[in-house]
Write a structure and sequence with these properties.
The protein is an alpha/beta fold. The protein has helices at about 15-25, 50-60, 80-100, 135-150, 170-180, 195-210, 230-240, 275-285, 290-300; strands spanning about 5-10, 30-35, 65, 105-110, 150-155, 160, 180-185, 190, 195, 215-220, 225-230, 255. The protein binds NADPH dihydro-nicotinamide-adenine-dinucleotide phosphate. The site of NADPH dihydro-nicotinamide-adenine-dinucleotide phosphate has 27 residues, from α1 and β4.
């Protein structure tokens, strides 16, 4: 039984997931949380491999949680080298250092490691085949960690949103009030995943894995259910209207379009469904419906007229 309060190093503390992890990890141990600017002589910049190594060696954490990433999917097609450094080389370095310290490394990956074929939810053991550089760089990060021999948890998630920061949820909620009509992709399927859920599952799994090393490994982490971006947008529009918000793009003005009608620099998978059976069994979890978290984030972000 692991019963001391572990030293935890959190990287990428101000991202959607990083912010929620600051809350969820705080009661578990002695937490040092860094963003890319670092603090007190510590480097948190994932692009600075030497600085990162010095930070880990100085702090000697028992748990490293890496919530930082290069997440600009379209920009990554142009900035391939930087995306690779942050998403593949930094995790490799963290894994190497974690192995030397016998620390547990927790890392996040993405549905974009898959090619999006078919319509069945992907299992952890299914063949990968990223369609864009972001997905390829994240897959390389996973593989470096797995082959390093360090103790690890890798959570693949999808369509992340939070009450804080920018995501599809915040952009849609704003555009629906500003524009009279919108077009939203209806042939990409997945599950919107709250940063809050990711952070809470992380802390739960962290404690269990420190106590039982056999639980380490790769897991899919998304809420229950699935939708398309269009279905997600309609859910937001309906919620806004229920709150009495003046919405310009009402449901009937949100047109479903196909991926081919909205060309982007990076190709995206059509099927981003992930099955979570492995995670739920290993950690005795029941994942809530995606709508629960989206509604909570909307209330937190925009307030609700039931508050008064
Ligand atoms: P965010 O984009 O919200 O946060 C990423 C964080 O990484 C930001 O705080 C960013 O800092 C930081 N970062 C970027 N470059 C560096 C660097 N060189 N050094 C240190 N920090 C850096 O991402 P999420 O919280 O949504 O993502 C968390 C994890 O989930 C990532 O691994 C991501 O790949 C994965 N994921 C995310 C999805 C999504 O839809 N967002 C979908 C599937 C998986 P700054 O703000 O200063 O740029």
């Amino acid at each position: 039984m692991f019963n001391t309060s572990p030293r935890i190093l959190l990287l990428g503390k101000n991202g959607q997931v990083g912010w929620e992890l600051q809350r969820a990890l705080a009661p578990l141990g002695e937490l040092t949380a860094l963003d890319r600017h670092g603090c007190k002589g510590l480097t948190g910049d994932l692009a600075d491999v030497d600085g990162l190594r010095r930070t880990v060696r100085q702090l000697k954490p028992q748990v490293i949680v890496n919530a930082g990433a290069y997440t600009g999917v379209d920009r990554a097609e142009e900035q391939r080298e930087l995306a690779t450094r942050i998403n593949a080389e930094a995790p490799a370095l963290l894994a190497e250092e974690a192995r030397a310290l016998n620390a547990l490394l927790i890392h996040y990956s993405t549905d974009y490691v898959f090619n999006g074929s078919g319509d069945s939810p992907w299992r952890e053991s299914d063949p990968v085949g990223p369609l864009n550089h972001y997905g390829a760089s994240k897959l390389a990060g996973e593989r470096h960690i797995q082959s390093s021999g360090c103790r690890h948890l890798i959570f693949r998630t999808s369509w992340v949103y939070a009450a804080r920061g920018n995501s599809f949820l915040s952009t849609m909620a704003r555009l629906m009030c500003e524009r009279e009509a919108l077009q939203v992709i209806d042939d990409q399927h997945g599950a919107p995943t709250g940063a809050e859920l990711i952070a809470d599952v992380t802390s739960h799994a962290l404690v269990q894995t420190l106590n039982d090393g056999a639980k380490q490994g790769l897991y899919h982490l998304v809420p229950a259910g699935q939708t398309s971006w269009h279905g997600y947008a309609i859910f937001i529009a309906e919620w806004l209207q229920r709150q009495g918000t003046e919405v310009q793009s009402t449901q009937e003005r949100i047109a479903p379009i196909s991926t081919s009608e909205w060309p982007t620099p990076a190709n995206r998978p059509l099927n981003s469904r992930l099955t979570t059976t492995k995670l739920e069994r290993a950690f005795s979890l029941t994942l809530p419906a995606w709508q629960n978290g989206v509604e909570r984030a909307l209330v937190e972000r925009l307030g609700s007229d039931t508050e008064a």
